[in-house]
Design a protein that fits this description.
Elements (H helix, E strand, L loop, with lengths): L9 H8 L6 E4 L6 H8 L3 E5 L3 H10 L1 H5 L3 E4 L6 H10 L6 E7 L4 H4 L26 H7 L2 H11 L5 H10 L7 H12 L10 H11 L2 H15 E11 L2 H16 L3 E7 L3 H6 L7 E7 L3
Parallel strand pairs: 1-2, 1-4, 2-3, 4-5
Antiparallel strand pairs: 5-7, 6-7
Helix pairs in contact: 5-12, 8-9, 8-11, 9-10, 12-13
């Protein structure tokens, strides 16, 4: 199996951005650089954000020529700081006016398969799950200090885990602290009595913990209004969400902006059947677009 990261809805996302040569676009979630690479291929310039150190290090090597030519600027920072970092680059005349902004809220394949960083069900790495290793709280800390009731609510409301209460109780009743991916995956598997359907039994629990550790929903709520402020009239904000909570935030903002006459929303759009067959990870993706028409 090829485990290389495949960007989801690549053509749909870049088409929605309407790439024009030499104009500037923001890739707020750089990841493996798939969307950035396509924008550059079409002649656009990119300001890219990612708070994941390995992603930025890999990007600096992969796109060294574009960086040296001034066509790509990579910033290791959360997209919650989109406005400050972008205006700083514009003040330094490294980046021009922003014609489009892309958010791909999905986790990269490299991260999902990383047992060392606590994202993967396989192996037995430390339950870390921090996208940014500068953050203080790890997943194992949440399991240790959050009370059973709140842990159950996290698994149910954020992860959509139907057996959240039983899993939270099992974690808190464990005779030894749950500090590794292997321990957590095995515990969930026992509670749920094995695999049901295509998903690993622990998928929703791992997802809920990752979202909590990285404050992902809060980050999105902070970033989208900043994106609208930075965007030139005629430009678009494109979001690709894989989790209902992520998509709900984008939907709420886009509809609110459309109602107040700031622009037009469209979507959600889903991947074509052919893409899902080639890349099963795309199956839950939803793409939305907001085109700004007024300041």
């Amino acid at each position: 199996m090829n485990n290389a990261h495949v960007p989801v809805m690549l053509s749909e996302a870049t088409e929605a951005l309407q790439i024009h040569p030499n104009e500037w676009y923001i890739d707020a979630t750089f990841g493996g650089g798939g969307h950035t690479g396509e924008i550059l291929r079409q002649g656009g310039n990119v300001l890219a954000f990612d708070w994941d150190r390995p992603a930025i290090e890999a990007g600096n090597k992969k796109f060294a020529d574009h960086i040296n030519q001034g066509k790509l600027v990579l910033i290791r920072e959360s997209f919650a700081k989109l406005h400050d970092e972008t205006t700083k680059m514009q003040t330094e005349q490294k980046v021009g006016r922003i014609q489009g902004i892309l958010f791909d809220f999905g986790t990269s394949t490299d991260q999902l398969l990383s047992s060392e960083r606590g994202f993967s069900f396989t192996g037995d790495g430390e339950l870390d799950m921090r996208m940014d290793d500068r953050l203080g709280v790890q997943a194992k800390d949440i399991l240790a200090v959050v009370p059973e009731k709140q842990l159950s609510e996290l698994f149910l409301e954020t992860g959509g885990e139907p057996q959240a209460r039983k899993i939270a109780k099992a974690i808190k009743s464990s005779p030894v602290p749950i500090t590794t991916t292997g321990q957590l995956a095995e515990l969930v598997k026992k509670v749920k009595k094995g695999r049901t359907g295509k998903l690993h039994p622990a998928t929703k629990v791992f997802q809920a913990l990752r979202i909590a550790v990285n404050s992902e929903l809060e980050q999105i709520s902070l970033a989208l209004p900043q994106a609208l402020d930075l965007l030139q009239p005629g430009g678009s904000i494109v979001t690709i969400a894989f989790h209902e909570g992520e998509d709900r935030i984008a939907k709420r903002y886009f509809r609110e902006w459309a109602k107040t006459g700031l622009g037009e929303e469209s979507g959600p759009f889903t991947p074509a059947d052919g893409e899902v067959q080639k890349n099963p990870r795309a199956r839950s993706a939803k793409l939305r677009v907001f085109r700004k028409t007024n300041e």
